[in-house]
Amino acid sequence: MHAWIDQALWCLDRQQAAVLVTVAWVQGSAPREAGAKLLVSAGHQWLTIGGGHLEWKAAEFARARLRADDGSDRWIEALPLGPALGQCCGGMVHLLFERLQESDRTWLDALRAGLQSPAGCMREVGLGGQGVAPWVRVSALDAAAEDFSATGPDADRLLRPDPVLGCLTLREAVRPDPLHVVIFGAGHVGQALVHILGTLPCQVTWVDARDDLFPDVVPANVSIEATDTPEAVIDEAPPESCFLIMTHDHALDQRLCEQLLRRDDVAYFGLIGSQTKRRKFEHRFRARGIAPERVARIVCPIGEPGIEGKQPAVIAVAVAAQLLRLRSERERQSAAPVRAEAHAH
Description:
By secondary structure, this protein is α/β, with parallel strands linked by helices. It has helices at 3-13, 52-68, 105-114, 188-197, 230-236, 250-260, 275-287, 292-295, 312-344; strands at residues 18-27, 37-41, 45-47, 74-80, 92-99, 121-126, 135-140, 159-161, 168-174, 180-184, 203-208, 222-226, 242-245, 268-271. The protein is elongated. InterPro entries: FAD/NAD-bd_sf, MoCofactor_Util/Proc, Xanthine_DH_XdhC, XdhC_CoxI, XdhC_Rossmann_dom.
């Protein structure tokens, strides 16, 4: 997720001095992966690089620089987790610290704009050196940038020397999260599920004709579609989206299911309800000539097996777990060819 971009801009909007901390290089075991972010101001902090003594120490470094208000705006701290911090992980973490200024708004806005593209963009941070001033730039992703993707062979190391400029450079791919979830229904379960998905790495489209059911404020990764033609949302959703049909009306559920069964590029198709509802819908679909193998794609009841309960919050947790498992499986599948190519070389 890229909530750190909006949070950093929020601090700049309020002229609140803050330091952005990025896990730039992980050696061995560590609480978080390369690319994880922490944002620190004098009195608050947002997001996490894993908690514990590492995060406490990072916040201490950041606030000391904010108080001093001198020195470089970008620097690296290398922290051995075992001997220095007493954490059981035992690895080494290199953290990039960036004290944000009004001038940083340019690249933050560029990142936010770049996330509107399916490909995303690349952020590069040069720490400078002899004769070279520190810099930040945002550019389109290219083939070379793929080596720095979250699933590539160098995913644990975003920081390395720049052979041309002769300075350390952090390069990180900033992409929209590939998990796009479309939820039909703003009832109790829909409300509970959006509350959870709003904290997870995904993009959510929330659909219902009943505009008054939507809350006044939704998470940054959630967009609302108040429409009386929800079938159009199915047609417009990007390939490999995940769909959850959980409206207040069984007839509407059935119409949406039939519309969705026409697509062949759906990553997940969940329908709220019991086994009895599933059997009734299967019978109706067969009567309409829909092939059994298409109907078999429907997940009903929804949710990770073994998580039982009918309370909206319990159903929401079970569904979120099912979607996260799907996301992990897709990441492993996409990473396999990259790792195989890396080993071949």
